[in-house]
Hints:
Layout lengths: L2 H12 L3 E5 L1 H5 L21 H4 L2 H6 L1 H11 L9 H11 L3 E6 L5 H5 L4 E3 L2 E8 L5 E2 L1 H6 L12 E5 L8 H13 L2 E5 L8 H4 L8 E5 L11 E4 L2 H6 L4
Parallel strand pairs: 1-2, 1-7, 2-3, 7-8, 8-9
Antiparallel strand pairs: 4-5, 4-6
Zinc ion binds next to loops.
Amino acid sequence: MQENIKQLNTYIAESNYIVFFGGAGVSTESGxxxxxxKDGLYSQKYKxxxxxxxxxxFFRSNASEFYEFYKNKMLFLDAKPNAAHLKLAELExxxxxxxxxxxxxxxxHQAAGSQNVFELHGSVHRNFCVNCKDSYNVSSIIASHDxxxxxxxxxxxxxxxxxxEQLNNNVISQSxxxxxxxxxxxxxxxxxxxxxxxxxxxxYDGDRLTLINKSVTHVDRRADLVVYGSIGEVLGGVRV
Length: 240
Ligand code: ZN
């Protein structure tokens, strides 16, 4: 067995408060494109760049076009959890893993069985009326023509953090708390270039900071263990 895979298994065996922090790379292995990768959404050609369409301002001024893009390009409801999602759910079930913190909005961790999931950027599965706050599921968004509307007449908005919007303070503070309590922090599928990822890991105070990525990141030198590879293959291969 590769030395660093062996070390990963040892760390997990010795830890009782594992926290996982995941980025887009966790979802790409389930077939969901990475927003920020070269071949992801951001390099595709639209009338406006995706970061413009997915902004608070654009949603306010042009909800119809927002939803045309959103329904076509942001919803991947056929995607299934991969080996990484499943292993993390298993680690939670046996009491080793206490929290999953994710930048993804697809709900795949919950689909895999994870309970304690902190979604920094929200979820496509929650939607609410901007007027009366009534909630709607994602199927009603898909079924809607043009802009999804509430029974009260208000526009229904996905509970997804758009560009220009603040992250949820409650989600942030609970994430910070878990990271501060963790005896092992596993970071996977993210280059940690996107706010607030890099800042959050500063709260980790243990000596089992583990990175799993396909390529080098700027925090590799801070890590106690770096594993290069597919997150599904690496985590999926962990023995519990
Ligand atoms: Zn309403």
